[in-house]
Write a structure and sequence with these properties.
This protein is α/β, with parallel strands linked by helices and about 700 residues long. It is built from 15 helices and 33 strands. The longest helix has 19 residues.
């Protein structure tokens, strides 16, 4: 210990200090009863151990202390104090605090049609949202009788603050807290609220996706967006604001100290599902250890893969977190019907039909002072209202945002827009100012040729119902690392153009709406699916995570992009087989003490390894036969032994996957092991072989 007044103590006081995260191992939730709160005695012992170590290096009082998800503290330390703490045998990890970004993709969002809109599900389950807070106004988060039974075991409170009263919590929003000491209140934007109130809209959107109330009418301008519901509309929400808006949006983010504190508090409060919209590619840091503590406490942990595409690395490369990538969902379709000419299919969000009207190429109707180049892309103010009024305008993609183009058409009194790709790009059904059909490049060239040859052409824009798009991973969804210890992402889920509630104008009680995208949106969808499972089955967290992964729909692409496939909440509700994990095995795996393999619902064979063992358990109520098959492998011969099993309810069986291939250099390969039950269920297990 440094004695006050000594030269060493004075040097420590004069040295620059930064916020560090100190973890004492093992965490408070590591062994024993994982469902009970940390007792007062354990908390006192934890504080005493922390204080002894901090006093020994002359550290000040901590900014935060953690006692539930892990045993640790956030404290200002000099480099020397941090080095000294790392030598303490009670200290597991010391690292500087850092700021992470939310995994919400900033690009404009293509609109998807709603997935199956449920009116119930998630009753009695609490989803903890670690994000940018919540704007609780409007029917999406109202306390309604349809919520069903109160959450089991939730002990959280409603912390008041700027623009947040205790009345902002209720039967739907059962708890709210906020954490800013890591980010720094002095760095927060002046208009931000030091409370659980959402400043950016991100947290509100994700909370509505996961658990927004059912039967809520959604409208944006003149567009009727239909009836809205979150994936688990009867689930309750606990809000943990740990992500903040700065004066410069580039500085927005979530300090790890605040995130860890939010996780620790959520576990202590008794949430059932923990939703984290932040991706971090490190596998052994303070945040991952806090999430480990949450998993050990039987919380279903769901987190975003990130939006860095194939060059990135999917977040949370640890087996106790369900990492979620983003896939395309169901896209709204529309059609351009040319009188006497072709019919061209594209993407269309609007449900409003535009009857036959004259069509003009935007490049031929520039406004005074605007050139054809500006008019071609329908830049704001570039169109001549005298020649556009009452017409449908053909605009090319590029230079300005897609929705800005339709706003320019509306400003010039146009009644509709046809948006054309000029190269190979996806089409997107955005929420436009006027009804719009977005065509690909080939269809666009066809339309342009026809209009040039037939300048008096009249066309109709017509919604064409809903068409399920190909199951593909979105290009910006982060890929996994083949050198990681586990296969990531675990799953993908709809993550583009998801209709969500967002904060309305301050002081109003009406709901506003927007379309959001990103792996964070996919994560919220998956958290809602987890709440449905917990409501139906009350399974342990590891069983829920297994059911989410093994009941997926196939998605085109390599396993490092798709994981097990696309989350299917309805299929997951029907019991089949589970890969069960003792929560204590996660820490044994991390520390290299696990005998045998961790029973994950995925298989990754590294460096010439040719076999893996897994155990499946019948989660249904009937004795069934299950048969296995291997598919998708192009280089290796993959077999499963035994090929079939008969399991009573609750009975388990161990199977071995063997891969044999050509001699010499062996390329990467992947595929799927599928167990099919006599009752029609399928359990899908992705396998990746890296050599």
């Amino acid at each position: 210990m440094l004695v006050p007044g000594t030269s060493a103590a004075r040097a420590a006081e004069d040295a620059p200090a930064e916020l560090h995260l100190v973890t004492f191992g093992p965490g408070a939730g590591a062994e024993g009863d994982q469902t009970a709160l940390v007792t007062a005695r354990r908390r006192l012992l934890s504080v005493a151990r922390q204080q002894r170590a901090l006093d020994a290096v002359g550290a000040p009082d901590p900014v935060y202390r953690w006692h539930t998800a892990l045993d640790g503290a956030a404290v200002e330390l000099t480099d020397e104090q941090a080095r000294d703490l790392r030598t303490d045998p009670d200290v597991d990890l010391v690292e500087p605090d850092r700021v992470l970004r939310l995994a919400g993709a900033p690009a404009p969002s293509p609109v998807t049609a709603a997935e199956t809109v449920r009116t119930d599900g998630g009753a009695g389950v609490t989803i903890g949202m670690v994000d940018s807070g919540l704007a609780p106004e409007g029917p999406v988060f109202a306390s309604v009788p349809e919520l069903g039974p109160a959450p089991r075991g939730f002990r959280g409170t409603c912390a008041v603050g700027e623009d947040w009263e205790s009345s902002d919590c209720g039967e739907k929003v059962v708890g709210a807290r906020w954490f800013v000491e890591g980010f720094g209140s002095e760095r927060v934007r002046s208009s931000a609220s030091l409370s659980a109130r959402d400043d950016s809209g991100h947290g509100t959107a994700l909370a509505s996706l996961a658990a927004g109330n059912a039967r809520v009418s959604a409208r944006a301008g003149r567009e009727d967006l239909g009836s809205f519901a979150g994936v688990a509309p009867q689930a309750r929400l606990a809000i943990y604001k740990a992500c903040w808006s700065a004066p410069d949006p580039e500085d927005d983010g979530c300090a790890v100290a605040d995130l860890v504190t939010a996780v620790d508090r959520a576990v202590a409060d008794g949430v059932d599902v923990l939703n984290l919209a932040v991706a971090t590619a490190t596998g052994h840091d303070t945040l991952q250890l806090a999430l480990l503590g949450a998993a050990e406490a039987d919380v279903v942990v769901v987190a975003a893969a990130g939006n860095d595409g194939v060059r990135g690395q999917a977040g949370h490369p640890v087996p106790w977190v369900t990492t979620v990538g983003a896939a395309q969902g169901v896209v709204r379709q529309g059609r351009v019907v040319v009188r006497g000419g072709p019919r061209l299919d594209g993407a269309m969000a609007s449900a409003r039909r535009v009857p036959a009207a004259r069509v003009v190429l935007a490049s031929t109707v520039p406004a005074a002072g605007a050139g054809a180049r500006q008019a071609r892309v329908c830049a704001p103010g570039s169109l001549d209202a005298g020649r556009v009024a009452g017409r449908i305008v053909v605009c090319e993609r590029g230079r300005v945002g897609r929705v800005d183009k339709s706003a320019a058409v509306e400003q010039a009194d146009g009644v509709g827009m046809v948006l054309l790709n000029t190269r190979r790009q996806p089409v997107a059904a955005d929420l436009h100012s006027v009804p719009t059909v977005h065509l690909d490049a080939a269809a666009g060239r066809t339309l342009q040729r026809w209009v040039r040859r037939h300048p008096q052409t009249r066309v109709t824009l017509s919604p064409d119902g809903r068409t399920r798009s190909p199951r593909v991973v979105l290009p910006w969804s982060s890929a996994g690392d083949p050198a990681a210890p586990v296969l990531k992402p675990d799953v993908v889920a709809p993550g583009a153009g998801m209709l969500a509630a967002v904060p309305g104008p301050r002081g109003t009680t009406s709901a506003a709406w927007d379309y959001v995208q990103g792996t964070s949106a996919a994560t919220a969808y998956t958290s809602g699916a987890a709440a449905l499972l917990l409501d139906r089955h009350r399974w342990p967290a590891a069983t829920v995570r297994s059911a989410l992964a093994t009941s997926t729909e196939p998605v085109r692409g390599p396993a490092l992009r798709t994981g097990a496939g696309r989350v299917d909440p309805e299929t997951a509700l029907r019991p089949a087989l589970a890969h069960e994990v003792d929560p204590a095995d996660y820490r044994r795996w991390l520390e290299g003490r696990l005998r045998g393999e961790l029973n994950t619902p995925s298989i990754l064979l590294h460096d010439g390894a040719e076999r893996a063992r897994r155990t499946i358990t019948n989660t249904g109520r009937r004795t069934l036969y299950f048969s296995s098959s291997a598919s998708g492998f192009t280089t290796y011969d993959v077999t499963v032994t035994p090929a079939a099993v008969r399991l009573d309810p609750g009975e388990s069986a161990t199977y071995t996957v063997r891969a044999t291939g050509p001699a010499g250099r062996r390329p990467t390969d992947d595929g799927t092991i599928t167990w099919r039950g006599a009752n029609g269920t399928s359990t899908r297990v992705p396998v990746l072989l890296t050599r």
